[in-house]
Amino acid sequence: MLDENDMKIVELLKTDAKLTTKQISKKTLLPITTVHNRIKKLERMGIIKHYSAIIDYKKLGKAISAYILMTIDYSYLKQKNITQHDLARSIKNHPWVNHVSMVTGNTDMVLKVVVNDVNQLDEFVTKYLRNMDGIQKTQTMIVLSDF
Questions:
Q1: How far is residue 95's CA from residue 111's CA, in Å, rounded to a whole number?
Q2: Contact in structure between 69 and 110 (CB atoms under 8 Å)
Q3: What angle separates helix 21-28 from helix 32-44, to the nearest 10 degrees?
Q4: Which of 2, 44, 113, 145 is 20 to 30 A from 123, alpha carbon to alpha carbon?
Q5: Quick count: other Cβ atoms within 10 Å of Cβ 98?
Q6: Are the C-beta atoms of residues 71 and 137 closer than 8 Å to each other?
């Protein structure tokens, strides 16, 4: 079970995954070895899955981010003995796909893609996604600003 100190460590790492155990120790007033052991415990428990960087894609020439809502054709997936998880993993392997989530409601899956320009987004949606078996409908929303 997690206690208040574990939660403090999680919150600090969520804000800045580059913090050292020494820096976390100073902020939580816990000994460095305690912080280290707690982080290792959080990793073993699967609470901390991995560490990542937040990338400014515009500085990499990727000017367009978009969310794509998808409706899945479950009868097709069932007929071909493919699961929604299989389809999600397949889509996640595309280099322009940043994130895939399965959701509830009128939409079955939401993707976040990062592309160079509108032409690349058009290519991804019309030539890749809409030609994939098992995808019934897409709705694309271009991101105006991220915070």
A1: 12
A2: yes
A3: 110
A4: 145
A5: 18
A6: yes
CA angle centred on 56, ends 52 and 62, rounded to 5°: 115
Strands 135-142 and 64-72: antiparallel
**pLDDT tens profile 30-68:** 999 999 999 999 999 999 999 988 888 889 989 999 999
Token reading at 79: 């007929």
How many residues make up the chain in this entry? 147
pLDDT, tens only, 78-118: 999 999 999 999 999 999 999 999 999 999 999 999 999 99
CATH 1.10.10.10 positions along the chain are 4-44
Residues of the chain with CATH 3.30.70.920: 57-142
Which CATH code of 3.30.70.270, 1.10.10.10, 3.40.140.20, 3.40.640.10 fits the domain covering 4-44? Answer: 1.10.10.10
